[in-house]
Specification:
Length: 220
């Protein structure tokens, strides 16, 4: 009973954080609208400008424009990619991370492999990663958390995207898609706005604008 309540709290917390983040991005003018009756017109103008800026930097997930150029490099559980791979442009990698298991050494192998994975990613101007996660105490247990991820950036074009699908906590789905389903009967307009960022159960996705990168811009 205690474990099920803990899982429910974790699932609700994750869903709440995801929903809050996207609501803030999608409807940044909502709080300003509520306050318009008690604020001066300059506050309304500032809110409108803020909303316009947000809409230009945050959007639904989309595949990167260089996807057709990808040559995918697959790495198994705990496998280290060679550091020279940072020279690939674009660098497209896929990682298995399903054996993050406490009692068989899988979690340790995962932790030891991550530094080299981060190293080649950080040096890349155009990067696309897909991975598959599962964290559990023992093999065969219900995982604490699972998901499939897609993460990419193009520093020269100053865009990046993130999408998580099949996100589950203790076997229960949690994502923007689940929030859309829950909101649809009561708040259809908000559900429609959020649906751009995830419609399926366990799905959440977003794209953002990156800061200017001089080396990647010069590299073309």
């Amino acid at each position: 009973m205690v474990r099920s309540r803990t899982r429910a709290r974790l699932r609700n917390a994750a869903l709440g954080l995801a929903l809050g983040a996207v609501v803030a991005a999608v409807v940044p003018g909502a709080s300003a609208s509520a306050a318009q009756s008690s604020r001066a017109s300059e506050t309304s103008t500032a809110s409108t400008a803020s909303a316009a800026a947000a809409s230009a930097t945050v959007g639904p997930f989309a595949e990167p424009p260089f996807t057709s150029e990808c040559v995918w490099h697959h790495f198994g559980e705990g496998e280290h990619p060679p550091l020279w791979m940072w020279a690939y442009d674009p660098l497209c990698v896929e990682y298995d991370k399903r054996d993050i298991t406490i009692d068989n050494g899988g979690a340790l192998r995962f932790l030891l492999a991550e530094p080299s994975r981060f190293a080649i990613a950080g040096l890349s101007c155009r990067y696309y990663q897909r991975d598959h996660w599962s964290v559990q105490k023992s093999t065969g247990d219900v995982p604490y958390v699972t998901w499939d991820g897609q993460y990419w950036w193009d520093k020269g074009a100053r865009r990046a995207g993130l999408r998580v699908t099949n996100f589950r906590i203790g076997g229960q789905p949690a994502g923007i898609g689940d929030a859309v389903t829950a909101l649809r009967p009561h708040f259809p307009e908000l559900a429609d706005a959020l649906a751009r960022f995830g419609e399926d159960s366990g799905e959440s996705g977003v794209s953002v604008t990156l800061p200017f990168s001089l080396p990647c811009s010069l590299a073309g």
